[in-house]
Amino acid sequence: MATMSVVLAAPRGFCAGVERAVFTVEKALEIYGAPVYVRRQIVHNRRVVADLEARGAVFVQELDEVPHGATVVFAAHGVSPQVYAEAAERGLKAIDATCPMVAKVHREVKCFATRDLQILLIGQAGHDEVVGTTGEAPERITLVQCPDDVDGLVVADPLKVAWLSQTTLSVDETNETVSRLRVRFPALIDPPSEDICYATQNRQSAAKLIAPHSDLVIVVGSKNSSNSARLAEVAIQAGAKAAHQVEDASEIDPSWFVGVDSVGIAAGASAPRVLIDGVLEYLAGIGASPATEERFTEEDVSFSLPAQLRKDLRGSS
After folding, report:
1. pLDDT tens, 23-56?
2. Residue 177 phi, psi dihedral angles, 5° rounding
3. What value does the mean pLDDT take over residues 245-266?
4. 26, 129, 176, 251: which one is catalytic?
5. Can you give the pLDDT at residue 3?
6. For residues 248 and 225, what is the distance between their CA atoms, to the nearest angstrom?
7. Which of 30, 170, 285, 304 has its CA at a distance of 20 to 30 angstroms from the CA of residue 101?
8. End-to-end CA, the chain
9. Beta carbons of 297 and 41 less than 8 angstroms apart
10. 39 three-state secondary structure
11. Residues 116 and 126: beta-carbon distance below 8 Å
12. Phi and psi for 134 in degrees, rounded to 5?
């Protein structure tokens, strides 16, 4: 095992949208005091949720679990207009931590809907982001989950069709879906800019970079994290002999390393650094060489805090 090499894909771990969402809850707790309620997981990572719970955040599924007049944070995946309306009806102080990349897709839905277009939304049924996006114009949206769904689509007018996508999908599979959509609907209208977010694309490209010379790729990220799950798929497609997704080092199976000389480590956009470090410590403990890094690109994106929170921060200073 002393000769087993380890390479870290970069970028990895938290993206700007996740950092903003987590920091939003932290600052809300600081300004308003505990408890601060959070609708759904602020980001799809159990460790992040548990850490915030320990500091006084209370995670709920729906707003009827939040006391009248309390403070509630909407998760990074976005919510439908109906959720905003319910928060107002219940007198809640709502802090919107929706990732700006997701908010952009919501704006695109509203724009296409006003143009009387049928929107083909590429995404995963039931995912929080897809549910929130669909809520902007449910009568206008048809969900397309994979390329094979394209052949069975029925549209009212093939000359008035547009497509959008969830921000955390496989770039390659989404491109395949769009290609098939364009064959069926030559007048298909594109979104004004890329929907799959920069961080998802960068992490997939980084996984592709390390995969061809990795016998095994370990992806750090929660099972319900769409962008993390895509990394394991991308690694296999790019040439890794095996790929496994783990929540943390406790889920690593020693049998994975039989006959393995090289290990690649990738991490989803909602995976905190402490979990990546834990995997590296595990590998060091079984005699692997110190990790080296292979970087696809640098990231310098940052997002400001939600407007309501910025306002209250100024008022508390």
Report:
1. 999 999 999 999 999 999 999 999 999 999 999 9
2. -60, -45
3. 98
4. 129
5. 81
6. 13
7. 30
8. 55
9. no
10. strand
11. no
12. -60, -35
Angle between helices 226-237 and 198-210 (to 10 degrees): 30
pLDDT digits (tens, 9 = 90+) for 193-223: 999 999 999 999 999 999 999 999 999 999 9
CB–CB of 309/25 below 8 Å?
A: no
Name every residue whose Cβ is closer than 8 Å to that of residue 258 and which is 6 or more positions away in sequence. none
129 among known catalytic residues: yes
DSSP letter at 63 equals: G
pLDDT in tens, 69-88: 999 999 999 999 999 999 99
Tens digits of residue pLDDT in 171-201: 999 999 999 999 999 999 999 999 999 999 9
Helices (H), the chain: 16-32, 46-54, 81-89, 100-114, 128-134, 171-184, 198-210, 226-237, 273-285, 307-316
* CA–CA gap between residue 245 and residue 233 (Å, rounded): 10
- The closest of 228, 214, 298 to 8, measured between CA atoms, is 214
- Span 302-315, pLDDT tens digits: 999 999 999 999 98
The per-residue DSSP string of 240-287 comes to -S-EEEESSGGG--GGGGTT--EEEEEE-TT--HHHHHHHHHHHHHTT
Q: Is 114 helix (H, G, I), strand (E, B) or coil?
A: helix
Residue 315 vs residues 30, 97, 223, 262, 310: alpha-carbon distances, Å: 13, 19, 39, 53, 9
Q: pLDDT band for position 317 (50/70/90)?
A: low
